[in-house]
Amino acid sequence: MNPKLQWLRNTMSSLDLQGLIISNPVNVRYLTNINAEGILLLTRKENIYITDSRYIEHVHSILTLYDEIIVYDIKDVSKEDYENFFMFCENVGFEENYVTYAKYKEYIRKYKINSLVETDNIIEKQRMIKDEEEIKNIKRACEITDNCFTHILSYIKPGMTEKQIADEIERYYKENSDGLSFETIVASGENSSKPHAVPTDRKIQDVDIITIDMGCKVNGYCSDMTRTFFVGEVPEYVKPVYDLVLKNQTQTTDDFKDGASTRLLTKMVENDFKLNGYDLVHALGHGVGMEIHEAPYINYKTDVSLKENMVVTNEPGIYIPGKFGVRIEDTVQITKFGCINLTNSEKNYIII
Amino acid sequence: MNPKLQWLRNTMSSLDLQGLIISNPVNVRYLTNINAEGILLLTRKENIYITDSRYIEHVHSILTLYDEIIVYDIKDVSKEDYENFFMFCENVGFEENYVTYAKYKEYIRKYKINSLVETDNIIEKQRMIKDEEEIKNIKRACEITDNCFTHILSYIKPGMTEKQIADEIERYYKENSDGLSFETIVASGENSSKPHAVPTDRKIQDVDIITIDMGCKVNGYCSDMTRTFFVGEVPEYVKPVYDLVLKNQTQTTDDFKDGASTRLLTKMVENDFKLNGYDLVHALGHGVGMEIHEAPYINYKTDVSLKENMVVTNEPGIYIPGKFGVRIEDTVQITKFGCINLTNSEKNYIII
Prior knowledge:
The structure is a homodimer.
Chain A: H1 3-14, E1 19-22, H2 25-32, E2 38-42, E3 47-51, H3 53-62, E4 69-73, H4 79-85, E5 92-94, H5 101-111, E6 116-118, H6 122-127, H7 132-155, H8 162-176, E7 185-188, E8 208-214, E9 217-218, E10 221-222, E11 225-231, H9 239-255, H10 262-275, E12 285-287, E13 294-298, E14 311-314, E15 317-320, E16 324-327, E17 330-334, E18 339-341
Parallel strand pairs in A: 1-5, 3-4, 5-6
Antiparallel strand pairs in A: 1-2, 2-3, 7-8, 8-11, 9-10, 12-13, 14-17, 15-16, 17-18
Helix pairs in contact in A: 7-8, 9-10
């Protein structure tokens, strides 16, 4: 059986789950490489994937015998088959954070399950730790992002609009990767003070500040990077803010390591910002993988201990409403003794 | 109060619902024009929208006094406030087809609701009948789609790839509308035999068949149109299939009217296809509005009676596996005595 399914089955045993219904297509793809519409059932003895005629061919081309997954066309699965899948299972798990209430009730009816139980993100937790192949894909997506950033620095000219710049990034990613991992943020001038700005028709000025938050996908895996940079010159009033963000981004990079508490990491940055009269208005970071935002989340709401081979972002930012903002973000891989930057674009003042 | 909220409140009364929690952002936007992250609560006496600081400004700029919606910043809503919202309500409805099982349990806890009940798509059903403003937006999206199709016919040249054509459609829509309403299908040659084909690097030949399924958005409302057309000439073996699809698409257009049964409409087309040795492998059509696929669905699984001012697609198709396919689709508005085509591109043989 493939190692991801095997790991999941071990976790299921420890939780006394004899069956599992996996409906979230991201989780199905993670466990099987199948990128289709369908449902994955882990029964006592078998791994079963049910899909429809549109995808059967694709699914067979992806799976090997080694996966030990039986594929059914949905039109060949009878009412009795559904009732038999989990017949001798006491507890069957489902994804309560993905499955709607209506589907939950349908599952109980269709599979005749006595005890359909919540699984508290069992697969999302497994996904936090990346294997070699996953890290390779994220690394590649990060490299392409560094290259795209280099390209875009030479592309930007005063007079261009934020939208034009975002379109060029999308064009570059379409040509060199599997496309955007999220809608690019290009925020210039006072727009840079909005952490979640959407590209507008504002034109780049001769002296300007620009924040770009960008990422792409490779084989289903994402990259995520932000840089704030300057056109013409770095205004004096921006320098102390930029330096403070950069100092914290660099320092925490040393502290992002196996065993570090996400709550403490966030607190450290927040304290330093507060000492200087600023606030940390959004999370310090988040996991990156098949989804651009996934567990673990680095904030003080949840306290998670970072582990080797987690891949997360480190993205402190300061925003002065109506004036400007600075954010510096890298995607990093956690190791036993620190972390490895997977995005490596320049972080000192960039002036174009 | 705005008429959409008033209509919904009347339906709630008839269903003995004293409260309603609306979480689906599409439904919130439909009822309020608010395009943000938040939750809309209809309590016994008030309409309440809870959002966060990022959206407060936008929300206030959208709403008027006439809407009678009270806006809260989520950070100002206390535990007690949540418990008070539905205090004297016996039945509070929620969207069981949108809300996850985890959220359902959270709602019960947070709002202290005794009876949180399923509402069987109460808002989606209301959304089936479009008002004047909604139809105006869909009409505009359909006009732009007709124009885009005219443009693309003169743009396509042998040697171009399906992807290039899809990119040009996206570029056109970005320039002239609020963007794509779904990922464009450009399927040429044998790819046209797949109803849900994704654009590939296949190059258009000197003699070729191309199916394009396309649509855009205007003020949140979608258009949807498909044409199958030809490069060089119409192969003789395609003509009978094309003629059969066109005949059925045109005939049913006369039958798409107030009172028509979606099941019977589907049956009629299926019977005629079967008489000629073919199958109807997908639904005959679907509602179009804020979502590209919405109620009513025109197939034989559900029997809905079409009503005046529903907007639906009429899209029969025949697919010969590994060879070619033909689909002709219009977006139409249902009236008392028939229907009005909102997309109006040529349906007789198009040869470029």
